[in-house]
Amino acid sequence: MRLIALCLTLVMAFWVQAGSAHAHALEPGYLELKPMSENTWRVFWSRPDVQGRPMAIDAVLPEDCEMRQGPSPRFDGSAWTTQWVTRCSNGMQDSALVIQGLELTQTDVLVRYELVAGDVATKRLVPDETGFVLSVTTGWAEVLWAYLTLGFDHILDGIDHLLFVFALLLLIPDRWRLIGAITAFTVAHSITLAAATLGLVALPSAPVEAIIALSIMFLATELVKRQAGSPRVSERYPWIVSFSFGLLHGFGFAGALGEIGLPQGDVPLALLSFNLGVEAGQLAFVACVFVLAELLRRVVPRLVKNAVTPGAPVAIVLAYGIGAVSAYWFLDRLAGFV
After folding, report:
1. CB distance 125 to 99 below 8 Å
2. CA-CA distances (angstroms) from residue 71 to 86, 113, 259, 273?
3. Angle at 309 between CA 306 and CA 315, to 5 degrees
4. How confident is the model at residue 93 (pLDDT cuts 50, 70, 90)?
5. Angstrom distances, CA of residue 26 to CA of 48, 153, 200, 292, 322
6. How far apart are CA 103 and CA 125, in angstroms?
7. Model confidence pTM above 0.90
8. What is the pLDDT of residues 44-58, one digit of tens each?
9. 157 vs 274: which has the higher pLDDT
């Protein structure tokens, strides 16, 4: 049994190490166009960091603009940013904007623009759609949809957050107690997400990310040590544990949202939409786990029962696997700021 757990530990550690090199490539870019006069715009362009260099994408403004691309970017600690002022002789209405090189990445770019002062529009560009024609629009529906999908994509790319939820699913087999724990986790990270994004509370991102990994290690330890008839602290008070760690995970979500940027004037809507997207992604993940478990229960019922039975071989292997991955993340993130 120990040998199986060790093998799974090594496999998962190598998988995490292989995937970590591409982690930054999944972070989004952000482009903002703000009018200064009738034909003049201030441009803010943010690109993700990839191994210490800006991602190989660039914003290309319409052909009538004097400066279609900006100067060399500077690293601000989380992304590569640049700002410049451009003049477009015929304006930008009905002109094409393109993110060059986006088709070769796995990321997306959020574009927020004003062709007329006060008339804000938002567009999300992806590898399959690298450009679009700028047009005047009220923009609230675009903001809602753009940040909703960003939140949904972020939680599905946030393997650490999903692994925490998966550990909860294994630890709390009772349906109602599980619903209470996930609800507490949701409420907690919604609170800190809003507070941190609005600037009411601030914590450095590196320690937060390390502690998030530590929270998963804690649940993995609880899974290993749990025994039938002798519930652990996380089993007796699952909502308290979920709420406490949910507050930390909310700071992680806020860090990602801070890198994307919030549209001025649409902050409440963008914040709400992003949070709803995160919750939708989390619920989709839980639903997929339940569906998969039900399918496995019909084919190999003993496997599913073993996964949630304290001390059973499958449960121990899963616990060691979760612990190995979270320990790797913790050490890797700790090395990033020590």
Report:
1. yes
2. 12, 20, 20, 33
3. 60
4. confident
5. 8, 10, 27, 26, 22
6. 10
7. no
8. 999 988 888 899 999
9. 274
